[in-house]
Every structure is written in C-alpha cells, then in structure tokens.
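ZP: hey, is the zinc ion complex queued? I don't see it on the tracker
AM: it wasn't, my bad. submitting now with these inputs:
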Amino acid sequence: MQQILTKEEAHIRKLLVEVTDPEIPVLSIMDMGIVRDIEIQEEKVHIKITPTYSGCPAMDTIAMEIKYTLEQAGYPTDVELILAPAWTTDWITENGRQKLEAYGIAAPLEESADKQALLGRSKVVKCTNCGSQNTKLVSQFGSTACKALFQCLDCLEPFDYFKCLK
Amino acid sequence: MNDQQALYQYLLLLGDSPMILGHRLSELCGHGPSLETDIALTNISLDLFGQVRNYFQYAAKVQAEGKSEDDIAFLRLAHEHRNVLLTEQPNTDFAHVIGRQMFFDTFHQLLLEALRDSKDEQIAAIAHKSLKEVKYHTRFSSEWVKRLGDGTAESHRRMQDALDHLWPYAGELVQESPLEKQMKQQGIGADLEQIRPLYWERVNAILREATLEVPENSWFQAGGKKGIHTEHLGYILSDLQYMQRAYPNMSW
Ligand SMILES: [Zn+2]
C-alpha cells in the first residue's frame, strides 16, 4: 500500500481502525488485514474487503459497519467483497497478534507447526493464561470457523487458538 | 447449451453438492454425539455454505436475469439440482456422517486443487479460497474414519456398516458427466479423469489405515448430476426451502 497518504486517506484509515470484527471485538479490521484496498474518488470512497473464511457470518456486518462509520464522517462509501487473493493469517499485523494473545486467543503459528499442533504431535501452542506449552488440542474446530479449541494441562484453562490459514 | 448457459449449469453443479451436504450437517446442530464434534460438523457446514454463496452469487451474475443467490438456493425444484446422491444420504449415525464426509472431502480437495487452474478467474478465486478451508475438513473426517475403524469392536462394526452402505454412492463424484466434459474442454472445469485414480488411491489408503474392508462392488449409483435423485432430496428441500415457499420474497 501507498507510503505517502493524503490527508483524506489518513483520516479514512483512522476511522477504519475503529471498525472491529464482531466475533473478536478487540481486533480492528485493519489489524485483521481484511481491508485490501482503499480508493478515494471524487464522489465516493471504494473499500475492498476480503473474507477470512468463506462462511464468515461477520462479513456482512463488517461491510455495513464500514459504510456506516465512513458515511457518518461524511464519506459516501461503497464496500466490495473480493475473493482473490485469498486471505491468509499472515496478514494479521503484529499489533493484531498481540491483541489476540492479550484477549485470550493464541495467535497462529507457522503452517508446519500448526499442522503438528493440530494433529496432536507436538506441543507448541502456548497457554494464553499461564504461558505453559503443556497444552493439548481438544478440537480442531472451535467457537468460530477460524479457531481450534485447546486446553492447558498445567493451569487447566481452556482457550482458543487462531488456526493458520495459508 | 451455449457457453453462458453451460457455465451457469456448471456453477450449480459445483454449488449444489456442498449446499445439500451443508444442509445435512446443519441438521446435526445441537445433535452431534459430543460438543466438539457437534461444533466441528456445523463449522464445516458453515464453510460449505460460504463457498456455495460464492458460486451462486457468481451464477446469478452469469445468468443475468436479475436473480439473486437466494433465488438459486431456495426456488429450484428437486430435478433442477445437480448434487451427487452421496450428499443427500441421511445422518443415520455418526459413522455414516463421517463416512459420507470422508468421501466428499477427499474428492472436494482434489476438485478444488484442479479448479485453481480454471481459465475462469472467479472459479479459480473461489477454489483458492475454499481449498484452505477444505484441507481442515479432510483432516477431520479422515482422522475420524481411522479412529472409528481402528477403535473398539463396536465402532469398527458400525464404521464398516456405514462404509458398505455408502459405497454405492462413492463413485458418482468422479464420473464425468457431459457437462463436466464440456467445461473441461473449455479449460474452465476440472478433469475428473485425472482426479479419479487419485481419489480412489486416497480413499483406499484411509480405509486400509482404518482397518476397514474395501467393498468389492464397483457398480455405482448415479444420476444426481443430471437431476435424478433419491427420495431424500425432496424432504431436504421441503425443509431447506420452507421459509421462501411459505413467505415468498421474505428476507432477513
Ligand atoms: Zn495455562
């Protein structure tokens, strides 16, 4: 994305940081990496977003929320959903990863480590409560499409792990 | 059929199987054998519905008659559906659910891998996106087939039962219909002849590891791709389409 931002674009970006994923309310859509393009034209602002998962029920809400937020600030807005290139967990920003962990969701690992963890072959997912790596996979599918369910064997806390998607 | 009609029909063919299977899985919401499997199966259902929406939104655009994805999903009759018969088979028990899923996921992953190279950019984009999700489905269902097959005497017996039951429906997935042939020749559709040996190889490997006996029968039920279905589809549609039939044009 562009390095030099116009005043308008900087303002729009700032507004978009306020829009969060309704399923993970600590995370801004900018941290999630789902805003793929911001195009400012004379009449309208065009925002392109991409879904995390095809069936993510939050996308419609997010699109509405973007439109509402920007139009409240005086920018007539169109939101377009695009599929390519497909979203990857690599697009979650460092800031986003830290917020996830603080919220109690373990951030995605490397793809190979993710596979080993989800097959129950290695202990690499850290407990978000006590930091122990003595954790076990409870289920590959968790409370939402993007998460798996883990449990810490030291402090016994159950927690979500944000699955790697690449 | 002209090219546009063929593409529209092909999109229905791609979308109908995950839609009907997604509906079958949604019937398990709150009825899964354990909380974790319940959540997993409904998550898979949600992924499938998301993928179907992508196909049907595109189909509506290709059709260009001002219809929406909902019209396509909720207003077609049974014989207008092109899903394979496997996907409409009932949730008899968990072994049937998992067996059905394993056949479908194994095929689905190979199909999407092939569709990534489709000349149609939107189909390729949907395939790229869906494949990431389907890899998790394949892992889930194949692990469970192995766990049940290579588990207790009771789980083995039931998994073998389910397998024997579902086997006649396992071949249609890789039988090329005239429409699929046409789309393959245009560089848009997947080549089922290339997928077929890989599919059987993977299925057999999973079943061997699960210590299950591969049925010898190699005659398969078919018809779904041209709209000839088992009696189950009518019941599914009366449930799936209920709201649109009872309250035409209603929306959330
Ligand atoms: Zn812990």
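AM: back. Chain B has a mean pLDDT of 96.
ZP: great, adding it to the tracker
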